[in-house]
Amino acid sequence: MYSVNYHRANSVDDAAKMAEAGDAKFLSGGMTLIPAMKTRLAAPSDLIDLTHISELKGITISGRTVTIGAGTIHYDVATHTDLKALCPALCHLASHIGDPAVRHRGTIGGSVANNDPAADYPSALLAMGATIITNQREIAAEDFFTGLFETALEEGEIVTAVTFEVPEKSGYAKFPNPASRYAMTGVFVAKGKDGVRVAVTGAGDNGVFRSEPLETALATSFDAKALEGLSVPSDNLMGDLHASPEYRANLIVVMAKRAVLAANG
Amino acid sequence: MSYTIDSKAVSQEPRPGQCLRTFIRDAGVFGVKKGCDQGDCGACTVWLDGVPVHSCLMPAHRAKDKQVTTVQGLEHDGHLHPVQQAFCDAQAFQCGFCAAGMIMTVAALDEEQRADLPRNLKGNLCRCTGYRAIEDAVHGIRSTDDDIAGAACGASLPNPFTQGIVTGHARYTMDVAVENLLHLKVLRSPHAHARIVSIDQSKARAIPGVVEVFTWEDVPRKLFSSATHEDHLVDPDDMYVLDNVARFVGQRVAAVVAETEAAAEAGCRALQVEYEILPAVFDPVEAMQDGAPILHSKGNEAKGNIFVTIKGEVGNVESGFAEAAVVHEKTYSTSRVQHAHLETHGSIAWRGEDGRLHVRTSTQAPFIAHQKLCYLFGIFPHDLHVFTERVGGGFGGKQEMVSEDLCLMATMKLGRPVKWEFTREEQFIGATTRHQMTTKVKLGAKADGTLTALEVHVVSNTGAYGGHGSETLAASLGSPLSAYRCKNKKADGHAVYTNMIPGGGFRGYGASQSTFAIECAMDDLAEKLGMDGFAIRRKNMIGPDDVIESVWSDPSDVSFGSYGLDECLDLVEAALANGEGLPAPEGNWAEGTGIALSVLESGPPTEHRSGGEMRLLPDGSYHLAVGSTEMGNGSINSHRQIAASILGTRGNNVDIINADTDLTPYDTGTFASTGTVVAGQAVALTAKALHDNIVSYAARITDTPVEDWSLVDDAVMNGNRRIELTELYKIGTEAGHRFDAKRKAYLSPRTIAFNVQGVRLAVHRVTGEVRVLHSVHAADIGRPINPMQCRGQLEGAVAMGYGWALTEHMVYDDHGKMLNPALRNYHIPAFADTPRTKIMFADTHDTIGPLGAKAQGECAINAVAPAVSNALANATGVRFAHLPFSPDRIFDQLSVTA
């Protein structure tokens, strides 16, 4: 890899200060940023390592409110006993990200801040109406994910945690990309006090999005049968070497059914 | 603050931006491998404070004050870690390049994770084994036999490199510290067809550390082919070391040599090249049209872009079709795929203290590389030494000289050692691929299924250079057609230049492509006749009394050394019917079963030769030298087993060296299924000669008949009379006798091997997902020298066949640029994608190959993709005639048909 300056931050404030100089990027697990740097899709002059900041790590549960520190690795989310009891869909999602080595390094904050259109977490946060907490403010998931690899984050702003109220029921199903195993289409369904929300990742040509036709159908009856015969439009879906928009539209319905089945356990 | 690798403090600090993988290797710990450098393959897996991570994705600075553990640090008190031992016992590797990372991942799994290997081994790719042996290791299954004197042949002896592989100490091509080393990197063409107008080197030369830049003006103006064959005339001399015309995206444009890899890369980026863009053509049919841009003007202009046309006919197909009750005609096509051996191409060249030039490289053909290098650079053969140490996979990809030439040229000019290691991206865009072929098949049959005519037309896209173009085309028109008895056969084919990456040798070698077409067509014909796949094949497949004939009636050196095709078919039929495998999943799945057969001559039609040398050593053990390359195919093990068997000793009593132009006799190369039938034959002849040397000497000094003496382990015996070999050696050498032998083997006649693949699968009607429920494979490979290794070769070939059928595909844009040049987007089968395949052997003993053996590792791949297509057709009623069968393509075709 090319020459880059490495800085180890010990606190969020520390990290924010370090970011003021040069063309710096925050480095969490590095599971996306480092490969991007190797192929020069990203070329920061400085890396600010967030992984030694203890305040960013850990999962706290208060009633049905869950707060996950941005530096929490996928492995810890996947295996958290209390979280598993409360929101198994999220643990299931985390346990299917990447491979063991990735799950031991990759973090929820990194995934959210990077907003890869095929990442798993954004669909969960959007469907559960989560709030993304940064060192400067709190942002609703709805407003946070703004496009392909685009978020509402400002320069120097650091995601510190995500928080959400666990819905009554939730489920996640993805059709893995045959090559990368990223979600070629992933659907997270949540039935909570605000009704049914369905978020789709891996399929939209502008990143994660909510599917109105699916939400409407499931609002009537939160049952996979409610989706029988339903089809969603392929407009604004991604077409690439692995799948056409039409194929992804097809997968959205199939994955939604599977997610509902999982949610209804 | 410090760095610790395998409990040893490391004094140096990482360079800014350095990843942990290279930091570890700079510390001399070469057990950590590079397969992709992008977190996709897992070969670099190490533990950081006990947790497995991809060391290529880890800035080395992050390891500060943490414990880094590599495969070299797993041993405890001189004992292997239990997982290392398990990998020994199950022989859970072939080339062994993935093992270092695989072991680190497996050793970190808890019981729950071990129960879900498909998910937890996702991050570790193996290209050789098909994962069965790895699964065996995880479950503590032992596959090896004891090494018993005289019983080496037919025993599953462990690979002699086992200890080195599981401890990370086996040395692959790049696993060596070289002082004063320079690094070479190459700028590759962004254009599919362009003339280089100028190259401004000034900015590149100004970069600190850059030592030299080479362009087309600096290389010998000699045409050659990077393809390696004994007869160099079968490949066209159509390339230069560096050319002033780029003919595909990824062709070498210039080389930069620098003090560091980073400086060499920066130098490449700083070169300013002015290109004159030329019109390009990518499709071979378009390339044959009048007015298509012509790629080469090297004496072949009259034929346009057609590099070669091959045709033939026996009987008369026209009358054959006239007498047919049913005629089937359809076009089938296969995709462009890459070998994806985990060790990329690479070489290190230097001038030794002996004044000679040395090239350490990752090749399947060091002797042919040696010849080509001598020719290109005007070197007297004795002054050049080319050798391999351990090679991390080949599959035909390394039957090609693509890195040695530039390294050697640079070291000749600069006087310092020079290294060049391909990146994974270069492996995809700058090496070679399987030839993409489109095959039209026309079959005619009587109502009872008897074939009356078989006609095949092949168009092969050989890409920008013609290496292997003629031989793969000839292979595509050869054995797949001789598999069937038919009076009237006709075939023609063209290998056509286009502005695509060049095709090359690839396991199955041309025959894979047309086998796909013919085996699919055979089922399509059977469907029309109302027959099943077994019946139509039994009716028409070649039998032991038939003439082995494709479309040429001239005499052939292909003979039945043994025949087991009928048995293979019976084995597969019985296995598919035995109720094993998985049930179809619940839901909207369609289930289907398919079979296909493949036939391959053991060895190429071109000349092929090999030699062996053996010596008895003072301690009573043996030394064997053979030129053949070991790249995970297990030949080094089977060779010593052949020798040990003939000498009545244990495998471990034979020390072996291979693939070294200084230390071993000449060998054409390990390709075209020759490892056993040519190099193995040379070993057998050599061992027999040494055997005779030893017993005849014992007879002579005792004045007894030679036939009364035999070799048993470490002695010669005559009744109760026993002379230890150590003693015999002493007596003999003192008397001036030499206990050594040298023999050569040539390939003729060529025997013939058979494979049958059976698949039962389920396909999801809505998502197009395919799940293999039951996979069975029968092979007639003669007598297995090492049954476990043979099984592993077949499992690996079948797994690669599933990759070709289901997941692998090199995708290009309209300008000839590859869109998925990474293992993240080009998907070789992972553990989860690879069904376990039941491997069965026909009970045959070949009369041509050494000790009853014949070719094994290559032909198995050919039957897999057509068997999958036939099973899909059986499940859905739809013929999938174009590889690969990825879910989106299946969905597309099923929705159209629905």
Give the secondary structure arrangement, pairings included.
The complex is a heterodimer of chains A (265) and B (898).
Chain A lengths: L4 E4 L3 H7 L5 E4 L5 H6 L7 E4 L9 E4 L2 E5 L4 H6 L1 H6 L1 H8 L4 H6 L2 H7 L6 H7 L3 E4 L3 E3 H4 E3 L2 E2 L7 E7 L3 E8 L6 E10 L2 E7 L7 E2 L1 H9 L24 H19 L2
Parallel strand pairs in A: 1-3, 2-3
Antiparallel strand pairs in A: 4-5, 5-10, 6-7, 6-10, 8-9, 11-12, 12-13, 13-14
Chain B lengths: L2 E3 L2 E3 L9 H7 L18 E4 L2 E4 L12 E3 L12 H9 L8 H9 L3 H4 L2 H4 L11 H7 L23 H6 L14 E7 L5 E7 L1 H4 L4 E5 L30 E2 L5 E7 L2 H10 L1 E6 L6 H4 L18 E9 L2 H6 L3 E8 L12 E6 L5 E5 L4 H12 L6 E4 L16 H11 L3 E4 L2 H6 L6 E10 L5 E13 L5 H8 L2 H4 L6 E9 L13 H19 L3 H8 L24 H12 L12 E13 L7 E8 L5 E5 L8 H12 L7 E5 L16 H28 L7 E3 L2 E4 L2 E4 H10 L5 E7 L5 E13 L5 E11 L6 H21 L29 E5 L22 H13 L10 H11 L1
Parallel strand pairs in B: 1-5, 6-17, 15-16, 19-20, 23-24, 30-31
Antiparallel strand pairs in B: 1-2, 3-4, 3-5, 6-10, 7-9, 7-11, 8-10, 12-20, 13-18, 14-15, 14-17, 18-19, 21-29, 22-23, 22-28, 25-26, 26-27, 29-30
Helix pairs in contact in B: 2-3, 2-6, 12-13, 15-17, 17-18, 17-24, 20-21, 23-24
Polypeptide structure, described:
- Chain A: InterPro entries: CO_DH_flav_C (IPR005107), CO_DH_flav_C_dom_sf (IPR036683), Diverse_Substr_Oxidored (IPR051312), FAD-bd_PCMH (IPR016166), FAD-bd_PCMH-like_sf (IPR036318), FAD-bd_PCMH_sub1 (IPR016167), FAD-bd_PCMH_sub2 (IPR016169), Mopterin_DH_FAD-bd (IPR002346).
- Chain A: It comes from Oryzicola mucosus.
- Chain A: Keywords: FAD, Flavoprotein, Oxidoreductase.
- The complex is a heterodimer of chains A (265) and B (898).
- Chain A is α+β, with helices and mostly antiparallel strands and 265 residues long.
- Chain A folds into two domains: 5-49, Uridine Diphospho-n-acetylenolpyruvylglucosamine Reductase, domain 2 (2-Layer Sandwich); 57-263, Uridine Diphospho-n-acetylenolpyruvylglucosamine Reductase, domain 3, CATH 3.30.465.
- Chain A contains eleven helices and 14 strands.
- Chain A has helices at residues 12-18, 33-38, 74-79, 81-86, 88-95, 100-105, 108-114, 121-127, 141-144, 212-220, 245-263; strands at residues 5-8, 24-27, 46-49, 59-62, 65-69, 131-134, 138-140, 145-147, 150-151, 159-165, 169-176, 183-192, 195-201, 209-210.
- In chain A, strand 11 and strand 12 form a beta hairpin.
- The model of chain A has no long low-confidence stretch (mean pLDDT 95).
- With 898 residues, chain B is of the alpha+beta class.
- Chain B folds into four domains: 3-167, Orthogonal Bundle (DNA polymerase, domain 1); 182-278 and 345-421, Aldehyde Oxidoreductase, domain 3 (Alpha-Beta Complex), CATH 3.90.1170.50; 436-604 and 750-893, Aldehyde oxidase/xanthine dehydrogenase, molybdopterin binding domain (Aldehyde Oxidoreductase, domain 4, 2-Layer Sandwich), CATH 3.30.365; 609-746, Aldehyde Oxidoreductase, domain 4.
- Helices cover 27% and strands 22% of the residues of chain B.
- Chain B has 25 helices and 31 strands.
- In chain B, strand 22 (609-616) and strand 23 form a beta hairpin.
- In chain B, helix 15 packs parallel to helix 17 (511-529) and helix 17 crosses helix 18.
- The longest helix of chain B is centred in the C-terminal third of the chain and has 28 residues, at 675-702.
- Chain B is globular, with a radius of gyration of 27 Å.
- At the A-B interface, strand 1, helix 2, helix 6 and helix 11 of A face strand 4, helix 9 and helix 25 of B.
